[in-house]
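Hi! If you just cloned this repository, the fastest way to understand the data is to look at a raw example. We've pasted two of them here, unedited. The first protein comes first, obviously.
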Amino acid sequence: MAEHPRYVPAPTGRSTAAESGAILAGILLLMSSIMNIFQGISAIAKDDIYATTSKYLVEIDLTTWGWVHLVLGLAGVVAALGILVHAAWAQVVGIVVAGLAIVTSFAFLPHYPLWAVLIIAFNVFVIWALSVQLRD
C-alpha cells in the first residue's frame, strides 16, 4: 500500500507569532466593528443627547455619530474578513479603520472611560499586529 504524502503548508516567510497575532487582530477587529455597528444603529434611532461629566457639557448629535460608527463598523467587518482570508489590501484597511476607531474612542473617553480604554487597547493591538505582519 502506497503511503500518502503528508500535507506541508508552503512557507510564507512570516513568523508564527506574527501570523497568530494577525489572526487575533482580525478577530478583535471583527468584534470591535460589530460593536461599532450596534452602537451606530442604536445612535441613529435617537435624536440628541446631552452627556455630562464632572467638567464637560457636550451636545452630541447621535444621528451623525451613529452614521460614523455604522460606516466605520461596516468597513471594519470587511477589513477583518479580508484579514482572516489573508488578503493583502485588508491589512492596510484594517490599520486605517483601527486608527479611526481610536480617534472616535478618544472623543468619548471623558464619558465612558473604561469602555473607551478597552476599545483603544484592542485597536492599538490590531494596528501593532497588522504592522508586524506587513513588515514580515
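Ok, and the second one:
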Amino acid sequence: MELEDILYRHFGYHSFRPGQKEVIEQIVVGRDVIALLPTGMGKSLCYQLPGYVFNGTVLIVSPLLSLMQDQVTQMKQFGEKRVVALNSFLTFQQKQYALNYLHQYRFIFISPEMLLQKQVYERLNEVNLSLVVVDEAHCISQWGFDFRPDYLRIGELFHGVNRPPILALSATATNKVLGDIQNYLKMDEPFHYIHSVDRKNIHLSRRQFQRQEDKVDWIIEHVLETEGPGIIYTQSRTKAENISNRLIQVGVQAASYHAGKESVDRQFIQQQFIEGSIQWIVATNAFGMGVHKSDVRQVIHHSLPSNIANYMQEIGRAGRDGKDSLAILLYEDGDENFAKMLATDDLPTDHHIALYENYRFKNENPFIMFQNGEISETAFRVLDYWMNEQPTDEVQRLLHKMRIEKMQAVDEMMEIVQTKDCMRNVLVHYFGQQLTERPNNCCECCGIIVKEIIEPRKLHEISTKPDSWKDRIQSILIGRKNK
C-alpha cells in the first residue's frame, strides 16, 4: 500500500507536509533518522504513520508528562485505542496492568527515567519493537549532561544487529547537538532531514530598560493594548506569580505556570489556555513542550534566556497556524549575570566532588549527601552519573567545562540583544544555516511596526473591573494611539 493511502486512511490527509514523506520512507526501510522539523510541521506523524506500516510496537521516549499525555489524548481522539503512557500519572495497579499487557499496545510513550527502571526495561525486551523514537531529541545534549543524565543512557538499551530503527526528532539543533544525538543514541549512519529553523511569520522585537519595574509596567501596558493569546517567559517562579497577579488585577485573563504548582493544577491551566479561557500564561521554561495551541500570537521574554537554543524553542511556540506572530525580548543591564547564575546554579562543584569521594572512601552511600541537604537533587543526580562514568579528575575537568560553556551560551544570547545586524540572521546563523530572505517587519534591526503584526485589543474583551481600572485601560489605549 502506498504511503499516501495510509496517510488518508488513518489521518484523513491527501498529502504530506515538507519533510514528512522523506523521513517516513527512510524509517520504513529500517534506517536510523535524525529529523529537524519546526514546531507545527507535524513531527508526530513521522512515527505515527510507520506504526500502521510495521507489525510491531512503536516506543516513544518523551521528556515531559504533559507532552506524553497530550499525545496520548490526541491519538485516542483520532480513534487509536492501543496507546499508553508509562509515567507517574498511573497508579500502581494501572502501571502493573499496562506492563502485563504491554505487547498489545501499538504506541508506548515513556520517559527516560521510567525506561531505565529494571522491571519496565525487562518487559519491553519481551515486546516486538518496530521503531524507537526519541522526541525532543535536543534534550539529550541540552539536558543529558547536566540535568537528566538518563538521557545519555538511552542508546545503551538499544544496540545489536536486530535492534529497531531509531528516529530522533527535534525542532532545533546545532551541529554539536546533532553530533551528541547521533553519538549517544548509537545511531548507525542516520539519514538527516534538516528543515530551515527560520519561521518567517514570527517577527522579532526587543526592548531595553533601566529597571525591572519598568519591564513589568511595559508588559502590563502592552498586554492591555494588544491581542493575545500569548506566553510571557520569566526565570523565576516568584516573578511569574507577581506578573500574572498584576495582569489579573487589570482584567486580563491570565495565570502563572511553573514547577512549584501541583501537577493537576498545571494540567488544568494548560487546558484552559489551549481552550481559550485563559489568554496569557506567565511561565518559567517549565511551560511549552507539547502545548498544541496553534494561535499563540505573542511570546514575550521578561528574562534573558540562558541560551539561543532555548530562546528559539520558546519563540517557536508562537504562530503555529502560520499567521503573523510577535516575539519580544526584554532586557535590563545586568540580566546576563542573573542568567549565568541560574544556568550554573545546579552544577556540582569541586566541594561536592570531594564530599562524594569522602563518602565513598568511608564505604557509605554518597546519596547521604542529598539526604543531609549538602547538595540539591539535580546536582546529585548529575554528579552520581559522572562519578560512575569517569575518574574523579576527569569529572572535575568536565564540570568546569560545562560551567564555562553555560556562561558562554549566555554571552551568545547577548548577541541577540546587542546586534545591529538582522536579529533573524544571527539566530539562523547560530544553527549553521543561511538566511535566504527577510520578511516584511523582519525584526527590530531591520524595522518593525507592531500594529501591522498584532491587532489592538478590543475594550469589550477586558474583564469587568472597577471604574478606575476601566479609566486606566482606556487612557493607556488612547495614549498609545496618539503617539
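That's it. A detail worth noticing about the second one: The longest helix spans residues 392-418.
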